[in-house]
Amino acid sequence: MNNPAPNLSDFGHDPLWLSIIKALFIFVFLMVGVLLGVWTERKLISRMQHRYGPNRAGKFGLLQSVADGLKMGLKEDLMPRTVDKVIYFLAPVIIAVPAFLAFSVVPFGPMVSIFGVRTPLQLTDLPVAVLLVLATASIGVYGIVLAGWGSRSPYAILGGLRSSAQVVSYEIAMGLSFVAVFLQAGTLSTSEIVAKQAGGGTWDILGMHIPTPSWYVFSLLPSFLIYAITMLGETNRVPFDLPEGEGELVGGFHTEYSSSLKFAMFMLAEYVNVFTVSAIAITLFLGGWHAPWPISIWDGANTGWWPMLWFFGKLVLAFCFFVWVRASLPRVRYDQLMAFGWKVLIPLNLAWILLAATFRALRLPEVDRGGILALGAVIVIGAFAIWLRFDTTNQRRRERKAAEVEEEFEQLREEPTAGGFPVPPLDLPHYHGVVPAARLHHEAKEVTSGSN
Amino acid sequence: MASMDGYFGSYVVVVVLLLIGVGIFAGGLFVNRMLRPDRPTPEKLMTYECGVDPVGEGWAQSQIRYYVFTYLYVVFAVDAVFLFPWATVFAAPGFGMTTLAEMFVFLAFIALGILYAWRKRVLAWT
């Protein structure tokens, strides 16, 4: 076993039975993962809010999700009279099935031996594996749109539109945050990206050899931070959980899927998506199945079945991060969410790609460094000039707006009915702490509830 | 069964996973149909509008903005996908400087697209 890390040429040789075993393992793993994940989330967030959380079904409430799942499987399933029956039925399937597909390219570990066949601990790998992940995420959006459309209810269609606009917006930023990783790794194949993060190089500076950390989270920190934000937006999790809003949209796109197995499929897809984006974060940025530093000193840490343990450990930690964020942050407003995605994340991402590409080019052999630096300088100055121009325009617009509002207030102060709305006078006495005489002398009679 | 080797062998496995997924969910829905009670009443089958009788035919009109954002998505997602092959060959010998300059021009065009949408107030919500 000279090189345990698999590459693309190790795939596509599995006998069919082995592929089916691996595929079934992925399903079972994700199903059990969702059951335990829901329990973990509820338990963890309860402790963060000084509650106990589920503690009735089974020891520590462990069977709570099983009980909920059984209940959903056995409840009456309503198909409202007005819905588009085919689309209404298909939407949960369209959202749930692709959610599982992305896991087919997630590397769980290196080459192992299963029943005498040497095979990588990964269902399959493609030269465009990460693209497959993005593609399956996009198919999931169809499920959201169709559920909203097929339900034929104002809440559902509004929730569906909102959710899909959010997910596609954050998907662009997500795709862009991968580019720097591909620049470093030179490949889109997940197993090779993981292999590239195996050992750090050394950085020769002033005659010293400083070992560089091998995980891309260190060398490409801005990409990772942007990805971490987009993965919350992509999976509709707090603080970007706007598709559901009890006060405005009820359940959003799944309002009409009252409490049946179809609703359970939406829930399942949501949690599987959380696992998927976590697994992608681990694969692209957090070293994949490689052992973290103190453990990696042990030579056997990255061989055999051990890496699967490190992978699961990272997955659990990533999931706990989602729960932690949910417990800590309030949700953002929808216009802020979209503005953040389009006006901050995407431009930042583009700038970072330029910067990362320049750094990468500088470190290539046989390249004209002076030329690259000149190019970089032109870009930086140009970007700064555009930003400056933009900023002054924005500033001017903001000042004009503020002046307009101030003017309107001025007018309203003089003539309260000017706006055309039947507003109460803005200078009523009780605004200034003056109690009306009637209330002061108890002349008003109390009206008990229930009387007319 | 076709050979699992070769370029499409890896995709065959993805299809196997897809079929298993469809099978599991179709089976689940079928079992659910067999086991669950089914006693619909007109009230149960009404669209949920927080307890009041539903108004109109269901679909509500909504803002055009969602549609515009989908358009923007198509533009930028396609652009982003163009970056992927570039990123993979970037460090290969024979590319280097030219590739870098070309991609800077390309990214400038993308950035121009965002700036245009921004200027046209498409990205603002109110």
UniProtKB/TrEMBL annotation, chain A:
Keywords (A to Z) from UniProt:
Cell membrane, Membrane, NAD, Quinone, Translocase, Transmembrane, Transmembrane helix, Ubiquinone
Quote a single Gene Ontology cellular component term: plasma membrane
* Matching InterPro entries: NADH_UbQ_OxRdtase_su1/FPO, NADH_UbQ_OxRdtase_su1_CS
Q: Reaction catalysed by this chain? A: a quinone + NADH + 5 H(+)(in) = a quinol + NAD(+) + 4 H(+)(out)
Kindly report the protein's main subcellular placement as a broad class. membrane
- One Pfam family from the UniProt entry? NADHdh
| One example GO MF annotation | quinone binding
Q: What is its EC number?
A: 7.1.1.-
- Chain ranges passing through the membrane: 16-39, 86-106, 126-149, 170-195, 215-233, 271-292, 304-325, 337-359, 371-390
Q: Which domain of life is it from?
A: Bacteria
Asked whether the UniProt record includes Membrane among its keywords, one would answer: yes
Q: Where in the cell is it found?
A: Cell membrane; Membrane
The answer to whether the entry has keyword Transmembrane helix is yes
Membrane topology per the entry is: Multi-pass membrane protein
What is a biological process (GO) this protein takes part in?
aerobic respiration
Instruction: Report the sequence similarity comment from the record.
Output: Belongs to the complex I subunit 1 family.
NCBIfam families hit by this protein: PRK06076.1-2, PRK06076.1-4
PANTHER family per the UniProt record, alphabetical: NADH DEHYDROGENASE SUBUNIT 1 (PTHR11432), NADH-UBIQUINONE OXIDOREDUCTASE CHAIN 1 (PTHR11432:SF3)
* Described purpose of this protein according to its UniProt entry: NDH-1 shuttles electrons from NADH, via FMN and iron-sulfur (Fe-S) centers, to quinones in the respiratory chain. The immediate electron acceptor for the enzyme in this species is believed to be ubiquinone. Couples the redox reaction to proton translocation (for every two electrons transferred, four hydrogen ions are translocated across the cytoplasmic membrane), and thus conserves the redox energy in a proton gradient. This subunit may bind ubiquinone.
Subunit arrangement?
NDH-1 is composed of 14 different subunits. Subunits NuoA, H, J, K, L, M, N constitute the membrane sector of the complex.
Annotated protein name in UniProt? NADH-quinone oxidoreductase subunit H
Automatic annotation (TrEMBL), chain B:
Q: Which residues cross the membrane?
A: 6-31, 66-87, 99-118
Q: Keywords, A to Z?
A: Membrane, NAD, Quinone, Transmembrane, Transmembrane helix, Transport
User: Its catalytic activity?
Assistant: a quinone + NADH + 5 H(+)(in) = a quinol + NAD(+) + 4 H(+)(out)
Q: Known Pfam families for this protein? A: Oxidored_q4
Which InterPro entries does this one have? NADH_UbQ/plastoQ_OxRdtase_su3, NDAH_ubi_oxred_su3_sf
Gene3D superfamilies, sorted: NADH:ubiquinone/plastoquinone oxidoreductase, chain 3
Q: Which domain of life is it from?
A: Bacteria
As for family, the record states:
Belongs to the complex I subunit 3 family.
Protein name according to UniProt:
NADH-quinone oxidoreductase subunit
Name its species.
Answer: Planotetraspora silvatica
